[in-house]
Inverse folding.
């Protein structure tokens, strides 16, 4: 079953409304707030059958997760309907090949985690589009040493003020170790399965059929990451 929010409201219609006069971002915010005030439409569209597995393709605008309450309201409503909810935060791997951009991606992921207050799986997408050199370079970002990145980043900064800020940000990320990324290659079936296993484990989907132990899951992840890069760098 596929439900399309455009059956309820559409950004283009909002932007074309002469009384509203919204641009793309304002139109999206208006649509999401309208959606939050009409969760009855969502309830009717979804139904609720035991063992339902529902995917929400959410907008990519980060302000919806950091500045506005609408996504948090959606999460809380789903939890009231007794759904187990897991966030899947996608970051384009082609964006993450430099220290500055990686730190920015981590902060965006961390901000969403804090705002939504739900388990979150962070994924580097489009690994299949990276060059051999980029794949080798990005390996260090999957299990990052933030203090090494401080040196990489601060050497490029002329201002002592920004050096101090960058050091504080990297220290915060490293001390709490809340954000780690899984590589995702849609052309690699094992890569897809590993990501799905982590999501299923997080929401304990099908727990009555098969119990999954965290230790085994972590070992699978580590082995997969090592094998993935060994196979692709040697190509």
């Amino acid at each position: 079953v596929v439900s399309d929010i455009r059956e309820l409201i559409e950004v283009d219609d909002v932007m074309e409304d002469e009384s509203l006069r919204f641009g793309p971002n304002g139109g999206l915010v208006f649509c999401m707030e309208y959606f939050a005030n009409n969760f009855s439409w969502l309830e009717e569209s979804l139904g609720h059958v035991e063992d339902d597995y529902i995917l929400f393709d959410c907008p990519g605008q980060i302000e919806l997760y950091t500045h506005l309450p609408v996504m948090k309201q959606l999460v809380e409503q789903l939890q009231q309907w007794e759904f187990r909810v897991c966030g899947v935060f996608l970051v384009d791997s082609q964006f993450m090949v430099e220290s500055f951009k990686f730190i920015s991606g981590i902060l965006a992921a961390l901000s969403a985690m804090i705002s939504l207050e739900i388990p979150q799986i962070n994924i580097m997408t489009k690994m299949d589009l990276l060059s051999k050199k980029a794949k080798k370079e990005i390996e260090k970002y999957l299990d990052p040493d933030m203090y090494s990145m401080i040196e990489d980043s601060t050497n490029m900064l002329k201002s002592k003020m920004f050096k101090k800020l960058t050091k504080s940000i990297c220290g915060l990320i490293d001390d709490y170790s809340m954000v780690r990324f899984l590589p995702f290659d849609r052309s690699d079936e094992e890569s897809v399965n590993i990501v799905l296993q982590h999501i299923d484990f997080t929401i304990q989907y099908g727990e009555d059929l098969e119990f999954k132990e965290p230790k085994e899951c972590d070992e699978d992840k580590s082995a997969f990451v090592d094998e993935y890069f060994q196979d692709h760098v040697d190509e």
Observations:
- The chain has eleven helices and three strands.
